[in-house]
């Protein structure tokens, strides 16, 4: 097993079992399995959307504040912690609420917080928000201290959020103000003050005190400074800092020593559960696991769990499966011409920190004895573990199997895909020929499918050393690498706009130079010669970053030469910030994209195959074997 590390990872082609199969099937004519024309078989489906709402009997946080909430300090901290937990969840989804205020925070029958009114919440963050306060009559009124009644003050709203709660970076007189999730943190500070301070009876008094609080000096009422409120004042100064980079994130606030822990009963219950789970031989452990499996599924959950899966009896689905089987047979034929043999791997894999690092969004299940297992997120990590543990020194294998991706929304069937994989395990160095061969296999498959031959394809290349060189040059700490990988991956998948990318990079507190470099490189993809020119500020230097960059570019050039030697005619570009499955790969990474036309868009690109080397992943499994 010593020489096992010289390997090449697979290409992967995904056939997605999704509702989009109807559209794809309608475009299939004259395939080799029987000249099927399904365009006349399309059946229009009508769907209805239902919105389930929750009635919050105890009204809003505004009601609680006006009712003397400040007198119950324990309740103040409990509600505040719940608000921060909810805000942390919102921000983890890449969203900004932008209109956080007491009237938008609801209390249910159990006195628990529900953050609502997302009318201004956004995941499409603008790069700039033009907000000229000189023409904003509402804010001018506040600045001049105009007297309002309580109800009038409560209804004051600006273009983003209520004027009394809006972050100062949104009230700048500059032409444009760049902002991120920290605007919600500032609003949270104003809310905490109102929760801790006595109820204000007149609108004029409230405006005066809150304007002092909103000043750069953060001026507190004199009676608040004299009271035993040092903890509250410290947190308020932290949240209300006019420099957004100095404010905490919601997650940092939750883990801060200044925020009191959860209520004693909750803490005790959590600790009791942790102790129970730590001893899987105890009666308490077996009872807890047994109770988990004794839970009943409600009729609503039963109906909605797999409602998003395509109908198995639909005629278009049957047609699509016939087409899929035809494609599958041609793909297997090509794999076998290249020496591929079918090798399946176990369906269930024990959950481990190592495995989850390679497949972070894998679906996790629990067995009857409480063990946590995973079902395949992709065909790569499971295969790598299998060949190391079974001492397979060399193999060319293929597999076409189902894989599953966990969804952020709980209570639904995991996303189900078909993935096609071809792997080459070879203990002998080959001067990067196998990467080119794998891309050539995709070339052959495309040439066997008439419906794809007229499309435009592009080969995108990167190298893990090149990516590391860029991050090292930017001075990014290694503990932030995963966060940056996640941002780049989501951006490539179309989940983030350019402005969301900028916002997330700002939240990582990178230097201006690092953010500018990463932001400019994000959409950079060109010839290797052009990339040499773009990265010359890195390659001309001395040190590890320059060495990594030169190594990555050299191997990319070799792979490009091998691709051209094999006669592949697709254009090739280098993408320095390509991060496809970056935690699995070590060396060359590549994607093959296809130009497609969408209904609502003029055109776009779809990744049809991707792969790279995963020597280090094999090595990591070897250490535990």
UniProtKB/TrEMBL annotation:
Residues 1-259 form the Protein kinase domain. One of its GO terms (molecular function) is eukaryotic translation initiation factor 2alpha kinase activity. It comes from the Eukaryota. It holds the Pfam family Pkinase. Keywords: ATP-binding, Initiation factor, Kinase, Nucleotide-binding, Protein biosynthesis, Transferase. GO terms for biological process: negative regulation of cytoplasmic translational initiation in response to stress. One of its GO terms (cellular component) is cytosol. PROSITE patterns: PROTEIN_KINASE_DOM, PROTEIN_KINASE_ST. Transmembrane segments: none annotated. Belongs to the protein kinase superfamily. Ser/Thr protein kinase family. GCN2 subfamily. This is Eukaryotic translation initiation factor 2-alpha kinase 4. It comes from Apis cerana.
